[in-house]
Amino acid sequence: MPSNPILSLFSKELLTNENFMKWKANINIVLIGNNTKFVMTENESDIPDENETECVREKYERWHTAKNKAKAHMLVIMSETLRTKLENLDTDFHTMDQLKEMFGHKSNQARFEATKNYVNAKMVLGMHVRDHFIEMMNYF
After folding, report:
1. Is residue 124 in a domain?
2. Which of 102, 95, 93, 104 is nearest to 77 (CA)?
3. pLDDT tens-digit readout, 4-57
4. Helix, strand, or coil here: 15?
5. Bridge partners, 15 (sequence order)
6. Cα(87)–Cα(130) distance, rounded to whole angstroms?
7. Which range of residues forms the domain containing residue 73?
8. 129 within a domain of the structure (yes/no)
9. SS3 of 90-136
10. Would the pTM of this model clear 0.85, i.e. be above it?
11. Is 26 within 8 Å of 112 (Cβ atoms)?
12. Per DSSP, what are the bridge partners of residue 78?
């Protein structure tokens, strides 16, 4: 069981085929809370040589420390099978790409269904606007 209280909450719902979108939202919350989400968007810098400034070396160390934390957070809240398959990937960006390939097609289908229902929704005669608005919000 993870010692981080946020991770312990999320570890109850490990990543499986059915809950990728929820898992992705949860991992984003964890990464933002730990100030490590930038490793998902920033490219890894080259290893600084001895002539580089201290600032460049600190940036490199910060990125790698954050990468390791983010990877640990991602791996701890996924099933053992997925963890074994993905633990050897270099970066979290590659890990997330691999997960999108495996589970992303379902999210596209869900998005299509939600959009179709939203576009085809009609307000029933006599229905309060508030109730119709809430119904429309539930599609997303």
Report:
1. no
2. 95
3. 666 666 666 777 667 777 778 888 888 888 888 888 777 777 777 777 888 888
4. strand
5. 78
6. 47
7. 5-103
8. no
9. CCHHHHHHHHHHHHHHHHHHHHHHHHHHHHHCCCCCCCCHHHHHHHH
10. no
11. no
12. 15
- Neighbouring CB atoms inside 10 A of 84's CB total 11
- Indicate the number of domains in the chain: 1
Residue where the block lists tokens 């999320």: 10
- Which residue's entry shows tokens 């005669």? 125
Confirm whether 126 is domain-assigned: no
Please, are residues 41 and 51 in contact by the beta-carbon 8 Å criterion? no
CA dihedral 100, 102, 106, 111 (to 10 degrees): 10
Domain membership of residue 110 (yes or no) is no
**What residues have CB less than 8 Å from 57, skipping those under 6 apart?**
48
φ, ψ dihedrals at 44, nearest 5°: -70, 135
